[in-house]
Amino acid sequence: MNHEQIEGFAALFGAVPKLTEIEVRHEGATLRMRRNPPALTVAPAAVASTSEGGTALSQAPKPSFVTAEHVGVFHLARVAVGEKVKAGQPLGQIDTMHLLSDCKAPIAGTIAALLVEEGQPVEYGQALIELTPEAS
């Protein structure tokens, strides 16, 4: 693999933001590029009024995440952002060498974000779905 080929792959990798990893093998050489996952952001605390007319800070509900328990290809169940889910409800599956395992909601809540697309390869511990806890 020559310098121009490597630069071409690097340009392709940079031009496709959804591409998180690429590995190219050619004539005994291997080129692997991996993008760091985007940092998760936490919503700022909300301001609530008190009974005395003042203000007090109240914490926004802390999000919870469905994470990959192993490496494989993620397949999303028929769920969408804004949908309410129950604790233990299957939200997707990971296919590892044709062995399917469920990805279940760790808490009852609402789907805030789908962090992985259908058919995307996932790694152990990777956040797949963000959940907002159900109000108590």
UniProtKB/TrEMBL annotation:
The keyword Cell inner membrane does not apply. Keywords: Biotin. InterPro entries: Biotin_Carboxyl_Carrier/Decarb, Biotin_lipoyl, Single_hybrid_motif. Residues 55-132 form the Lipoyl-binding domain. Gene3D superfamilies: 2.40.50.100. PANTHER family: OXALOACETATE DECARBOXYLASE ALPHA CHAIN (PTHR45266). This is Acetyl-CoA carboxylase biotin carboxyl carrier protein. The lineage of its organism: Bacteria, Bacillati, Armatimonadota, Armatimonadia, Armatimonadales.
